[in-house]
Structure formats: C-alpha cells, structure tokens
Amino acid sequence: MPAVIPQFDAERTAALLTPAAAADALAGVLRAGLDPESCPQRSSVAVPGGGELLLMPAAAGAYAGVKIAGVAPGNPALGLPRITGSYLLLDGPTLRPLALFDGAALTALRTPAVSALALRYLAPAGRPLRLVLFGTGPQAYGHLEAVRQVREPAGVVVVGRNPAAARKLAEHTRALGVPARTGTPADVAGADLVLCCTTAREPLFDGRLVAPGATVVAVGSHEPDARETDTALVRRAAVYVESRAAALREAGDLLVPEAEGAIGPGHINGTLADLVAGRISAGGGQGCPQLFKSVGMAWEDLAVAVAMYHAAGGTTARGPSAT
C-alpha cells in the first residue's frame, strides 16, 4: 500500500472513463453474479439549512468502497455545485484504502452510465432517435453524451426551467453535430426517447402524450414523495428498475401511483440485471411505452470506481488489479 493513496480531483476523475466504458463495467459485475437486491441501502441524514448527507457503502469481489455525498439545494445560488462528495475505494480482503475519487464527478459519470446500459436493451435500434431532454445541469450534459455513445440521436429538444440554460445546452448539442432546439413538455409526443434529469418533485409532462414504443428514463429523484413522471405514464408503461427493493423503497415515480391505487408492487416488469442476463426481453407488450426508473445504488458507484482505478493503472494491495 502506498504511503499516500492516489487522489483524483473532479477533472481527473471525469477523464478516466467514457459513459460507454462505465456501462460496460456495470454490465460486467452483473454478469459476474452481483445481486443488486442484496445491496445495502443508502443512509440519509438531514443537514440544518436544507441539505442532505448520504452514505453509500458496497462490497463485491476484491473491492469495497463508500461514497459520502452531499446534496445542497442552495449551492447553485452561491455558484457552488449542488452535489458534493468523495469516494473511497478499498481493497476488499484487507480494507486498505486504494484511491480517493471526486464523488460528484463519479456520480456525474455513473448515473448516465446506468441509463446507457438500460438503453442498450430498451431503446429502439437501427435508426436515429428523436430525443427530448428535460434538465440543463451536469446530469443532462452527461446523459446527452451517454446517449450519443449507445444510440444515434436524430435531433434533441431541450426542456428546462431556465430558458438561458436550455439555450446553452441546445447550442452545445448543435456544436456536437446534432440538430437541437429548446421546446416544451408537449414535445414528448414526438419523441422516441425521453430523458428526465431534473430536481423536479412533480411530473414534468403529460404521460398520455408519450407514443407507444417510446422509451422514458427518469433519474432525478431517490425520494419516495418526489417524481418526474406521472401516474398516467407509469400505469401504461412496461417498467424496469435497478432493483425491486430499492425502487419500492425510494422511487416516488412508482410509489406515488401505488399509493393512489393506480398500480401494485407487481407492476415492475424487470430489472437491469434481468435485461443484462437475458432472463427477460424488453417490450412489455405491444404498443407500450417503456420506463426505466433509476434511483442510484452503491454497487454502481463501486463498479465504476473499480473500473476507473484500473484505467488509472491501479493495483490492489496484493498485486496487479484484475477485471
């Protein structure tokens, strides 16, 4: 073990992996037998002033790790990031520290990577896709890049509360060679793919407008009383999640419709692990939208952190790292 463990700031953390490579790492641990249903749940502590402190530990294979993350809603007004934190990667058998990564940068990569992995199975293939993107923050930018690595966008419509920020993201998208404009929630009616990357606590659009065969990804909330999609969409969609236990504990997109009596806990069609392992096929029936609801889980952080550590040339306390 080195006297001082390597530390990766936000820029170095973000540069270690592409979203597609991070998605490969997630698929790899699922194929190796990791069971997300057994993953420890996150701990949350309310912080005076409206913030939230999250603790997310995980262990699998030769590694363990823990993310300490802060969610500070008031930070953007101060010119600071809303998400803060650090990720400590450990050698599993000895629990010796191996590396310290920027936690916000890891999250900004991990969440789009999870979505990218789901889209490999759920999004239509073989043709460019019309994309509606809700949100203008780091996750919106990360998801745009992740989608470009797994599917070809025909065009992007950006919907955001801040018109200037929406225009900026549309301009960024056009600079990448993808047609883009700002729009309104009604634009979901013409979308093949809808990405929800916001801090919204109420539905962003009318779920009745989503076309049969379209795919919706919602990643913005892990709170049981907050949601980005409405009951109408959830009721008519084939629903996929990272873990049934986590979704039924934290996913307001599903828990609110269940509390309304619109769906039951058996409404979930399958999990990410089911898709990767081929235990189920995507679709959920003819003429049915597909919804992937992500809450973010500690095993995902660990899988991506290990892949970043390998990409940086790291070794375990016992010798060279192995995939």
From TrEMBL:
GO CC terms, sorted: cytoplasm
InterPro entries: NAD(P)-bd_dom_sf, ODC_Mu_crystall, ODC_N
Pfam families in the cross-refs: OCD_Mu_crystall
Record-linked SUPFAM superfamilies: NAD(P)-binding Rossmann-fold domains
PANTHER family, A to Z: KETIMINE REDUCTASE MU-CRYSTALLIN
This protein's name: Ornithine cyclodeaminase
Lineage, uppermost ranks: Bacteria, Bacillati, Actinomycetota, Actinomycetes, Kitasatosporales
